Amino acid sequence: MKFTYYGHASFLIETKGKKLLFDPYITPNELASNVDVNAIRPDYIILSHGHGDHVADVELIYSNSDATIISTFEVVNWFGSKGLDRGHPMNHGGSWTFDFGTIKLVNAVHSSSMPDGSYGGHPAGVVISNSEGTFYYAGDTALTKDMELIGEEFNLDFAIMPVGDNFTMGVADAIKACKMVGTNNLIGVHFDTFPYVAIDHEESKELATSSGIDLILPKIEQEIAF
Ligand code: NI
Ligand code: MN
Fold first, then answer.
1. What confidence tier does 46 reach under pLDDT thresholds 50, 70, 90?
2. How far lies 176's CA from each of 62, 124, 142, 201, 211, in Å?
3. What is the pTM of this model?
């Protein structure tokens, strides 16, 4: 599996010959101005919830590609009502096997509304597994004991979690979340994009290292192989 970071909580996972784009928020992000958004041609666009900082570039990338949108029922239907009808709706606790592997939609503790203010369902995380590996993307969430269920069910190779604090978990809670889901390999996202989520990188990495967690705070366009 290959991870490529596009800033904020936007990243691409390449696995089993497919491209999975998560939570695209690239064109509004000044920090990601070097990313050529029109060159991103995913097979799937996977959305954790409806907030603008996770869906801003869905329409553009959808129209540039043959991508299918995978998200909660409400988010998929909202895009469907705008004519983006290649979608696969899911809901919490449900799994589905796609051509790249199996997704299980899991709980996130956050909120979710669409950019026009309409109801965005309940926010989600995902666990994705195939013969190349298994990873958890937490979406926007607080630390929650529900994460222990992920640790019981899956043998994760790595996790991608928000670490920016204020709107989501901060680093200390993400470290606890890693212990609960059972991985020491953490890629932090949802940091530094706005002043509310700016973090001290040195302090964050020291805290993680002292807890036995290998925290990567990726640079935009950085690629990481698992
Ligand atoms: Ni959010
Ligand atoms: Mn967010």
1. very high
2. 35, 19, 11, 18, 9
3. 0.98
